[in-house]
Structure formats: C-alpha cells, structure tokens
Design goal:
5-stranded mixed β-sheet; binds zinc ion; Beta Polymerase, domain 3; 7-stranded parallel β-sheet; 17 strands; 45% helix; alpha/beta
Length: 574
C-alpha cells in the first residue's frame, strides 16, 4: 500500500509551492488531497489501476497526473522541477517558529541558508537583522524559535514520558465514546528514550474524541486537528499524536503503531508468503480482500501463525524466529520482584529514614530490602565510618524484628581510582550484602577503568556491581569501559550485575543484559538505588530494561525467595 508515500509526496509539493509563493488555493489543494489519501482504506494502487483516482475527493485532473507519474516511475518529475528552484531542505527551515515560508525563502536567497545548521550559524553572527523586512526583534524571535524546535525534537527519557502517557490514557478513558486507549510506539516498547508520544484510541466518534484530546489540560498548543489524527504540544514540550480507529481495527492499528519498523517489515514478509496483507486496518486475504483479523493484537499474530509477542521484544532481534519455534522467553514481570537490594537512607545521602523505607517496601508487598548507604571515603554528605555502620547494623536488626520484615544490613562501597574498596575485605565480609560501584575519577582511560573494576570484582566480596557503566542518559556517556571484561570477571567471581532502575541511568542497558545472561549466565539484580521512599516505585523501569534484555524470572536475583537469596549471598563468600 503506497498511500502514505503518495500523501508524503503531495504534502512535500504543497510545502514547496507555498515556499515559492504560489497561489494559496493550489497549496491547499495538494495538502487536502494528501490528507484524503492518508485516510483512504483502499490501496491507492488499486484505484489507479481501475482508473478511479479522480473519484478520491479533492483529487482533480492535475493532482491525479502527479500521482500517476509517481506510481508508474517511483519518482515525481514535478517534484524534481520544484526542487530545482527551491531546495527541499527549506521545508524543515520553514517549520522553525518565527520563520515561515516567506522568511525561509528570503534566508535562502539572501544568505544561502538551507537548513537548521546554516540558520544557527547565521544567527550566531547576527546576520539576520540586516535583511529586508527583518530586524533585531525578528532575529530574536527566530533564535527563540530554533531553541523551541530543538527542545521539541530532542528525545525524552522514558521516565518523563511514561507518567505523562499514563495520565493521558486515564484522562481519555473517562469519555464514554472512547472504547479503548493505549500508548503505542517506542513508549510501549519501553525504549529508554522516546521521540513523539503516540496514542491510539478505538472509537466510533472521531470528532468527539479529537475534541476531548485537544481539551486535555496538559495541552499547550494544538499543532493539527484532522478527522483521524491530531497532534498537540504539551506544556513540557512533548509532541503527542493521537489516532482514532474503529474498534474492529484496534488490534491491527496497535500492532502497526507499536513497531518497531524492522519488526513490522518482517511480519509483512511473513504475511505476503501466506497470501495475506497486513496493515493498520487489519489482516486481509489477498485473493478476495477478506478481512480475517484486526480487533485484537493476539488475533493479528495468530493469523500469521505466531504467538503474541511482548512489545519489549519487538526489535527484530530474533524474536520472530523464536516465536515461530514456540520458544519465546517468559519475561520477568513486576510482580516477580520480591525485594530491592540497593537503597539509601538518611544515614548517608538519602532523605527517608530506614523505617520509612522499610514500611514502603512492605506496602509494595516485598519480602526483603537491603539498606546500602555510602561509606566515608566517598565525598558525599554523611558517608559512614565503620563505627557508624556498626551502629546502623544494630538498628537495622531492631527494625527488622519490630517490623517482622527482612532488612539486610549492607553498604554501597566505592570502587576507588586504583580498584580498592573503602574497607578491607575482612570488614566488608561482615556486612550481609556488599554492593559496589564507581562514583569518582570517571575520566580514566578505558584500560584503566576496566582494570580498576575487574580488580575490585576479583577481591571476591562484591555481591552486586552497581550502575556498571556509569552512564547518565542524555547527560553523560558511559565511562569508557570494556563491558566484556567486566562480565568475564563477574562470571568467574559470581558477582551479580545491577540494572539500575533510575530512569536517567537504566544501567546495565538492555543489550548488555541479554549478553550477560546468554553468554555469561550472570544473574542480574533489578535495583532502584532509591534515595527516598517514593523512588522505590521506579523499579518498573528496571523491569522494563530486563524485559528488553530478554530476562526471565530465574535470571533475576531479587525474584528469589528470602531463603534462596540468603543461600546465594552466603555461598558467594565461601
Ligand atoms: Zn551508586
Ligand atoms: Zn546507590
């Protein structure tokens, strides 16, 4: 089905005509035709073959010819002609708030500015203020516009996007004409960062749904409203696209808009081999165009002789082949988690008391919790001395008894620049659990950093390596470290790797988790590293990483029962 490609072409032509300053009606005609074609449920190739292009509302003789040319040659002579006068890149430039088509053309003609990079350079040398019709004020406006655009297009951490998506889904659910609603796209696949937020609604009342959506209190600006798709910008500068489909296509649309693209391409190939056609409207038999699935995702996969595949796996990383063989992993779930093995209290840099942390863990249905405060060698506020730790150990024991709950007395040791830990091994062995990680001297060479961590692991006292690569998403790259060498050392010393659930860390990342499991058989620990009781709930992000890393319950240390966990912690020491 080439409908989307044709719509994109017509939209492009419309934008270029507008840049050229062509007749307004012509500009609108192309955009309107694009919109109609985007929403067609029949493949445009069929209409063309049957000579019915003219019957599409909004498609006149002239536009029909452009479509014909494109369908026959795969190119558009008209588009090529237009781009000889106006470069296609200007379409992007025109979208900068404060620029628009007239100014974009002016910038191109006077200063040769073709894209955002050129514009940024010209702005930094204040070149715009001397152009005809512009001045320092419009220059300032465009500067701000470019900033907004950049913010808009930056990828957003899952930790910011997910709560917003959940809020919108709840908001939409209250309307009786909204039958089903789900976030899809990379958010549903729980990728660590996402671009735009995609929401899918099943409803028979499109107009009412769009009105409800644009009336969401978080909306800052309505970017576009159409009969089946609308876009808004939220107050936090996130773009949200909402699509409405009929309930009998909800499953196929959900599958389609969840992606990933690579996964969907593979599925479409399977469909073709079976004489089927798969798109957002359903699964159809090619021979008679009969729809055989579409209402649910399960139905769609089953029409292709596949079991339903969890969204986190849909990256074309072997999941389709494994599904075919009936060998998909049973991914770990939030309800499998029995405790958190790395949290802080107000004894070091946390903000909640041990008691508050414990109460929260109990409320979450956990069986155990490990208090792992920092030691003094780390410059952080309130790092503890050995004396202080001993005192804390007694208090932990008391709380454990009083609350009838397993509280582990641990620490998060610091791996110092040369690979030493805060305390001698004999002292560390007295703790019930030792978590350790790098918190300083990040700028070492790759060799040095790897050696440092391996040396620490080889001491044989670390149960869990915390935030193994030290990355902060979109802020700090991982420190240079050879993950393979770390995993090798961890395997030998039976050290567990942490999946740090903090949305700005998510470290180890999904791909390395899969490697740790499949190549080294390493157990992972999904921890929150919570510094307040509220943050214990961030565990869901770590579980998402684990699922994207193909981990099952048995691969995750903190799904163990208390007895099994104790056994594992002790055996480690022998
Ligand atoms: Zn840490
Ligand atoms: Zn920590």
């Amino acid at each position: 089905m080439k409908n989307q490609e044709v719509a994109d072409l017509l939209n492009k032509i419309s934008a270029l005509l507008e840049l050229k300053g062509e007749n307004r009606f012509k500009v609108i005609a192309y955009a309107e035709a694009a919109r109609r074609i985007e929403n067609l449920s029949t493949p445009i190739e069929n209409l063309y073959r049957e000579g019915k292009l003219n019957q599409i509302p909004g498609v006149g003789q002239s536009i029909a010819e452009k479509i014909k040319d494109f369908l026959e040659t795969g190119k558009s002579a008209y588009l090529e002609e237009l781009t000889r006068e106006v470069p296609e890149e200007l379409i992007e430039l025109e979208k900068v708030p404060g620029v628009g088509p007239k100014v974009a053309l002016l910038l191109f003609k006077e200063l040769g500015i073709k894209n955002l990079g050129d514009l940024e350079k010209a702005l930094s040398s204040n070149l715009l203020r001397n152009l005809p019709r512009l001045g320092p004020k419009s220059e300032e406006n465009i500067k701000r516009g470019l900033e907004t655009l950049k913010r808009r297009s930056a990828r957003i951490p899952l930790g910011h996007a997910l709560p917003l998506a959940e809020e919108l889904v709840q908001f939409l659910k209250q309307f009786p004409f909204v039958k089903q609603v789900e976030a899809c796209g990379s958010l549903r696949r729980m990728k660590e960062t996402i671009g735009d937020l995609d929401i899918l609604v099943a409803s028979r009342e499109e107009e009412k749904t769009m009105k409800a959506f644009t009336g969401w209190p978080e909306v800052q600006e309505v970017l576009a409203v159409g009969p089946t798709k609308s876009s808004v910008l939220t107050k936090s500068a996130l773009q949200v696209d909402l699509r409405v489909v009929r309930p009998d296509s909800f499953g196929s649309a959900l599958q389609y808009f969840t992606g990933s693209q690579a996964h969907n391409i593979k599925l479409r190939e399977i469909a073709i081999k079976k004489g089927l056609k798969l798109n957002e409207y359903g699964v159809f038999r090619v021979e008679d165009d009969k729809k055989i699935a579409g209402e649910t995702e399960e139905e769609v996969y089953s029409a292709l002789d596949l079991p339903w595949i969890p969204p986190e796996l849909r990256e074309d990383q072997g999941e389709i082949e494994r599904a075919k063989a009936g060998d998909l992993p049973a991914l770990v779930e939030l309800k499998d988690i029995k405790g958190d093995l790395h949290v802080h209290s107000d004894w070091s840099d946390g903000t909640s008391t041990i008691e508050e942390m414990v109460k929260q863990a109990k409320a979450m249905g956990y069986e155990y919790l490990a208090i792992c405060d920092h030691a003094q060698s780390l410059g952080v506020a309130g790092g503890l001395t050995w004396e202080k730790f001993k005192e804390q150990g007694k208090i932990i024991q008391e709380i454990s008894q009083r609350e009838d709950f397993h509280v582990l007395w641990g620490l998060e040791a610091n791996i110092l620049a040369e690979g030493d830990l805060d305390f001698p091994e004999e002292t560390l062995k007295k703790f019930q659990i030792v978590v350790a990680g790098v918190h300083s001297a990040f700028r070492q060479s790759k060799e040095k950093m790897t050696e440092r961590i391996v040396k620490a692991i080889q001491k044989g006292v670390i149960h869990i390596l915390s935030h193994p690569t030290g990355r902060l998403i979109e802020k700090r790259d991982p420190y240079e470290v050879d993950v393979e060498s770390i995993l090798k050392a961890a395997q030998k010393n039976r050290t567990s790797m942490e999946i740090n659930s903090s949305p700005e860390r998510l470290d180890l990342r999904d791909l390395d988790c899969r490697k740790a499991k499949e190549e080294y058989g390493i157990k992972m620990a999904i921890n929150t590293d919570a510094h307040s009781r509220e943050n214990l709930s961030l565990i869901k992000f770590g579980v998402a990483v684990a699922r994207r890393g193909w981990l099952e319950k048995k691969d995750v240390l903190n799904t163990y029962s208390w007895d099994d966990l104790q056994g594992w912690l002790k055996k480690e020491r022998d």
